[in-house]
Hints:
The protein is an alpha/beta fold. It has ten helices and 13 strands. Helices cover 38% and strands 20% of the residues. The strands form three sheets. Strands 3-2-1-4-8 form a five-stranded mixed beta sheet, sandwiched between helices. A five-stranded mixed beta sheet has the order 11-10-9-12-13, sandwiched between helices. A three-stranded antiparallel beta sheet has the order 5-6-7, with no helix packed on it.
Amino acid sequence: xxxxxxxxxxxxxxxxxxxxxxxxxxEGRISDxxxxxxxxxxxxxxxxxIAQMVAQLSEGDPRRPVGVGAAGWMDRDGCTVLxxxxxxxxxxxxxxxxxxxxxxxxxxxxxADAAGWAEYRFGSGRGESxxxxxxxxxxxxxxxxxxxxxxRGKSGIAGEFGHQCIVPGGHRCACGNRGCWEQYASGxxxxxxxxxxxxxxxxxxxxxxxxxxxxxxxxxxxxxxxxAAAGDxxxxxxxxxxxxxxxLGISNLVSVLDPGTVVIGGGLGxxxxxxxxxxxxxxxxxxxxxxxxxxxAVQRAQLGAAAGLIGAADLARRNTGGQ
Length: 323
């Protein structure tokens, strides 16, 4: 039996391939966690799996607050998932269905908002009142913290940073538009540029070509990042190019929101120190009014892949009166 203090809450993070749940204390520390595969095409099975994981973590205290982070758009009340790219949820009252299965109230939150909240409370944004958190993965997500609160906009879907148009008429994006930021500064973008380098048969890409057997379809952003860290000049150049695009987008966000700190996380942001350094240099070079205004600090995220569930758990605790 799991025996924990009443200070613990339960955080759940629903990923595209796995669901992770954990006990989280009031300082953001994880003391126990469980995993299950995500039933991607079966939302009912996903909700059932979450309820079972919560029950497992609730042994010893069936009143523990529960927070669930999921990719997608939520309504402003955090009741309905308007759209989720991973789970086939479309205008589904997920919060109330989960609460009925679990037997207690549930806090439902966008996964990027949950991760940003965790960094604000316990990570690189601790002590900051106004913060932007970027999550770099296959695309670009993020969260905005203003005045110590998550800013979600009128409809609840603020923070879709990756779909600001940064190159009019540029690369086609899955959202239907062209030139979105995430087409130039994400894991998918890095993989695409690496694949183009392989297709070109460029002699400077010999290590990358060797790694994928001259098959451009095998190139991923993670592979480019790994080779760059190992010293491959061609992949390092790709990281530099991407960092410049990333910094340009950051300067746009800082110009609009004026945060004190920009935190860069997600799988790609956590993996490449060089990417973050180049992005900061680019941002400082392109920020409007530079020289006459303070620069926001640019920090790498501290909490890694657990940020989403830590944030969801902390928000659930606060929603039930905890601090």
